[in-house]
Amino acid sequence: MSLWKRGRQYWTDFTVNGRRYRKRLGTTNLRLATRRERELIEEAGHGRLPVDEQGPKRLSEAIEAYLAAKRIRCSARTLELEEERLSIVKKHFGDVLLSAITASTIAEFQHARHDAGKANRTINMDVGVLSRVLKFCGRWRALADHVKNLPERQRPVGRALTPEERKRLFDAAASNAEWEHVYCAAVVAANTSMRPVEVKHLRRCDVDLVKRLVHVRRSKNETSHRVIPLNASAIEAAARMFERADLLGHTESEHYLWPACQWGRYDATSPMLKWDTAWRALRDAAGLPGLRFHDLRHTVITELAEMGVADHVLESISGHLSRRMLEHYSHIRIDAKRQALDALDAARRSTTHNGDGNGDGANEAEIQTVVEVGDDLTSQSRHSLVLRGSPPAGKLLIPLERRDVRVVEGARLESVCT
């Protein structure tokens, strides 16, 4: 740790946790310089001070280095999305020094994007990719506490198809041979909860028709890699794709069941990227505008939740679920239980006039009787009672003047008006 003057201002040079910091203190006063040095050392100890290390100095260099490091770890689609967002960041900031990117300049970027009519979620994605670049260069910690994301409106979790809508969708899909690949993909997704990317990346070696298993080896995250049992509908759809692959000559174990296709030419060594055109035509033919392929996953998970499947089983089938998703499906499970119990209560009430759920509709005859009550229990010596049903399920009803409730041979005595 040392202080020295360069020109008229003080500078400091110190090392914390093996990292060297060399900073200008911006003052000509020794006492003030000493105090600022202590503050900088404290910030460095908490990791809030950028390190003076060799690396990119400008934004364009930092973006290139960030993408080069990410290229060996991420898929082409992820890189494409990152480059798309970073192009907007570069257009706004230009090739500035990284040290010129501060919390205030990021706030100005947020305002500019908002004034351009962009949604808060889009703006947060732009700021997110910029933060990842700065973090890659070791310059984000000093800004993290001062940059705030814009509030986002919670979007619906998804749409669950009704049995009638599901039938319409699959009937429409089966009516056109050109939609066979989308039809089979939809059947598989609707019976396994697989995501679109998981279905598209299925190879022949991933599906075992004999053991009735599918191995999900490509997903949006590693925690979603799993093995899913196949039911009869899913096996039938997968078998159709195997037959289609055999006809196309795609017989290698590493060939994709949904291969890439461009200008009518198939490439079994690459997965299909999109089926948007066929899917939009299919859903419109079924009268389901706006339906996403991903909603098939939401449908099967919703149905499993309504059946009362436990969370850990649900997640083992569907892969990783966010906390928000688990809470949503927990509410579905509670609603299903409430509806079942309400239906039970309504059925019991329909079979009895008194609505207590214990009566027998076939035993509604009233039996007049007289019950002797001891003098030590009541001031009245005799009461007229009505007996409904047959003991022990029946009820003995006594006048309102008797405020107490007693049990006689399993039958419950309750007050009634005389």
Describe what this molecule looks like in 3D.
It is a single chain. By secondary structure, the protein is of the alpha+beta class. 45% of the residues lie in helices and 16% in strands. Strands 9-10-11-13-12 form a five-stranded mixed β-sheet, with no helix packed on it. A hairpin with a 2-residue loop joins strand 12 and strand 13. The C terminus is likely disordered.
SSE layout and pairings?
Elements (H helix, E strand, L loop, with lengths): L1 E5 L2 E8 L2 E6 L5 H16 L13 H13 L4 H18 L9 H13 L4 H17 L4 H4 L18 H12 L5 H13 L3 H5 L6 E2 L4 E4 L9 E4 L2 H17 L10 E4 L2 E7 L4 H10 L8 H13 L4 H8 L4 H28 L15 E7 L9 E7 L6 E5 L7 E2 L2 E6 L2
Parallel strand pairs: 11-13
Antiparallel strand pairs: 1-2, 2-3, 4-5, 5-6, 7-8, 9-10, 10-11, 12-13
Helix pairs in contact: 2-3, 3-5, 4-5, 8-10, 8-12, 12-14
